[in-house]
Amino acid sequence: MKYLRFNQPSLQFIVWEENTELYHSRMAQAASVRLRALPVSAGFVYWSELSNEFVCYGESESLGMKSAPEDSDLFNKWIKEQS
Q1: Which of 27, 62, 68, 80 could pair with 23 in a Cys bridge, judged by C-beta atoms 3.0 to 4.6 Å apart?
Q2: Residue 16 in contact with residue 2, Cβ under 8 Å?
Q3: Does the structure show a pLDDT above 90 at 8?
Q4: What is the C-alpha to C-alpha distance for residues 8 and 23, in angstroms, rounded to an integer?
């Protein structure tokens, strides 16, 4: 899956399927226009059977942004808050 992380409490993450032609830059542009939100990091996320949690990694070439070291912890916390 692809993700964008934002620095707003009302919009922390957007996640979508990796196998689409929807680039990080297009999703960031939509969030910027509609929600006035700018991403602070971007990359990919997967479920790790080994650690039993989500892991964020990589980078967005279209935005020139990398995943941040704290993204995995923040993503797992965010997922728990959604349920």
Answers
A1: 62
A2: yes
A3: no
A4: 21
Residue 82 three-state SS: helix
- pLDDT tens for residues 14-66? 999 998 889 999 999 999 888 888 999 999 999 999 999 999 999 999 999 99
**DSSP letter string over 40-78?**
EEEEEEEEETTTTEEEEE-EETTTTEE--TTHHHHHHHH
Q: Which helix (H) or strand (E) holds 12?
A: strand 11-16
Euclidean distance between CA atoms 71 and 69, whole angstroms: 6
Note the Cα 54 to chain centre separation in Å: 11
Radius of gyration for the alpha carbons in the chain, expressed in angstroms and rounded? 12
How far apart are the C-alpha atoms of 2 and 24, rounded to whole Å? 8
Q: Which two tokens stand for residue 37?
A: 């939100």
